[in-house]
Amino acid sequence: xxxxxxxxxxxxxxxxxxxxxxxxxxxxxxxxxxxxxNAISLIACSVVGGAFLCAVAxxxxxxxxxxxxxxxxxxxxxxxxxxxxxxxDIAFWVDPLSAVMILxxxxxxxxxxxxxIGYMHDDESYWRFFTFLNLFTAAMLTxxxxxxxxxxxVGWEGVGLCSYALIGFWYKEHANTTAGNKAFIVNRIGDxxxxxxxxxxxxxxxxxxxxxxxxxREMAPVAHYLQTVxxxxxxxxTLAALFLFIGATGKSAQIPLYVWLPDAMAGPTPVSALIHxxxxxxxxxxxxxxxxxxFSLSPVAMNVVATVGALxxxxxxTIGLAQNDIKRVLAYSTVSQLGYxxxxxxxxxxxxxxxxxxxxxxxxxxxxxxxGSVIHAMGGEQDxxxxxxxxxxxxxxxxxxxxSTLAIAGIPPLSGFFSKDEILWKTFSSxxxxxxxxxxxxxxxxxxxxxxxVFMTFFGExxxxxxxxxxxxESPPVMTYxxxxxxxxxxxxxxxxxxxxxxGGNRFEQWLEPVLAGGHGHAAHAVEHAVEASEYLLMAASxxxxxxxxxxxxxxxxxxxxxxxxxASAGGGVLYDLVYNKYYIDEIYQATFVRGxxxxxWLGANFDLYVIDxxxxxxxxxxxxxxxxxxxxxxxxxxxxxNAIADAIFxxxxxxxxxxxxSINVYLYVIVGAVAAAQFLPRLSSAMLTTLLIxxxxxxxxxxxxxxxxxxxxLWRPPILRGGAPESH
Amino acid sequence: MNGALLDIGLxxxxxxxxxxxxxxxxxxxxxxxxxxxxxxxxLILNSANINYIAFSHFSSGRYDGxxxxxxxxxxxxxxxxxxxxxxxxxxxxxxxIDVEATDNLQG
Lengths: 729, 107
What we know:
By secondary structure, chain A is mainly alpha-helical. Chain A contains 28 helices and five strands. Chain A folds into four domains: 147 residues; 127 residues, no CATH class; 263 residues, no CATH class; 136 residues, no CATH class. In chain A, 71% of the residues lie in helices and 4% in strands. In chain A, the strands form two sheets. Chain A has a three-stranded mixed sheet. Chain A has a two-stranded antiparallel sheet with strand order 4-5. The radius of gyration of chain A is 42 Å and the shape is elongated. Chain B has a single domain, classed as Helix Hairpins, CATH 1.10.287. In chain B, helix 1 packs antiparallel against helix 2. The termini of chain B are far apart.
């Protein structure tokens, strides 16, 4: 991977959708009013188209390079964080893994943009929709193109934000905004784990003396030092992998954080297709494949990942069996398929997981868009019990939906067969027979609930009311063409990775090998091309159980020779109730986490109200009391002293003024007396003079005090208020 | 300068002056009539005049004392003018010139 090619067009893959989002976001309302909705969608679709062309260029570029040199870098964008040894730049790279991802995001994302032109046509917030769709695309591309963990995290949060905004797109209904909040909050839990994972890696690497670099290609060669650092006896590698996996369970909707995804169906259907099926929810799988050099270090973490993946796959599949909402079935199906991808990661078959990610993007996007087409035709109805018989009314939608259903059910030679079987085979061959059995059973259920959906929606008699039936129509070409392209992809994508056992040589795995073979342990092991008889056996079994599921659905929902009620009432109906109510997981979470949080916040609020506030108010009261005391002291003592002095002076003055008789004779006597007395002063000694002075002073003070004590007026009233000029005749 | 009885010296003048001063002071201190007080002041001034002239005559032989005496006479005239004007003012305000009645400045 030395000497990467520096190219400068990678940035446009991200910047073009960002530009589209900026233009539509800032000017969209005006543009829509002045030039109509076509201007909005022209901008939005052309920027994604431009990004797609850049992505194709990048793909062809690395296609021509040798397998060891498939690596493009665009580092000239901007420096970002430079603190001490830590150097993080906004830099993009394309290697075989991100090449696959950007093609999915821009290609399938572009088709969904085009589809949205038709689907969202009557919505007045058209511009807002496309703004967020563009912003999402930019964020998702940042996630997959970022050449370091922190930039990946920026994209990770960006897609979460757009997901939240688009789930609550029709915010006038409270349920939708609640669903958005749920998605956002549940993802926060996962993100907390993700950030802890990042910190653990930083801490672990720097503890081992290998600097803190977030750049993937610099991290990979030193990642094995994470095993040398331990926390409470747990290797940092295990800890980091588990934390990162918590992040993945949030974003990729795994047990126990999957609960937001079914609710996320409140958003417009193109959003479900783009964000909650094809791209964003696969970010967790992408991240784990990207960080495979950490995961591969820890067999413990890998086993956890694989187990959670397999359990999610079958758990969500069982819930999907009993749902009646057309989009909810697809939502649980998505959770289930994501479980397969995570299972693939967990058994070290990263390439198989990414392969399934690719094929799933095609057929699940097609299924969602097809269901959107149905909902569009049905005037917003999502309950499959009120559908039926749509195949003649909507031939294109039916054909594409049917093909994609075959693909997800794992019927050869459609794409789902190759990718899902690859994962199952890798699971089995790496010695996880139990997990294989779970995945195997899940595959059968997948086939069953998908065909149940097809039969309920497209076959049989229409159960819609008269008005809706009259209104039924095939969707416009702008919606059906994307469906056709996606269905074509769902058919053909599998041929990219035909396994060696079927003579294909698995070119997809070879393509990703330069990226994923760099790790240690599982990945290298998984690449072995052992053609064994058991592989054929497992393939046949997969096809067999899929066929069984289809046949069961056919009997129950098309021929109606088997009554679903028979199965529903098995075990006293308890099982059915459990599955129909999604194992009451939402209720359990509501009762424990949500209630618990609310109780905790109630406790906190009351603690605040009664303890903290009491202390604060108490402090205020004490202060007020002290201030009152102070005021009292000031009024009585300080003012008393001040007033006493003033009063004394006043009283002295009052006495002294009586010297001023106003009688001229008296004055003359005083003058004469003083002149006479002055004759004696020079004859007095200084001691006698001092004594005289002291006697006179003491006399004055005594006069003052006496005058004060004889006080005719209260002490505390300032003299100035006493009024009254000196009395006169 | 030869007769025994008429051998009047400085001492006699000072004696007369003392008597006049004492009379003037007594007059000033005891009179209730403002004009009476003024008259007492005149006596005091004139006792001073006698002193001036006597000291001048019996000491230097020059006329400094006499000149000062003339100054004092002039001053006494001015003083009488102002004093009488004040007395006139008092009379207009109080309808009396009894100094015991005019104690408005009493503290």
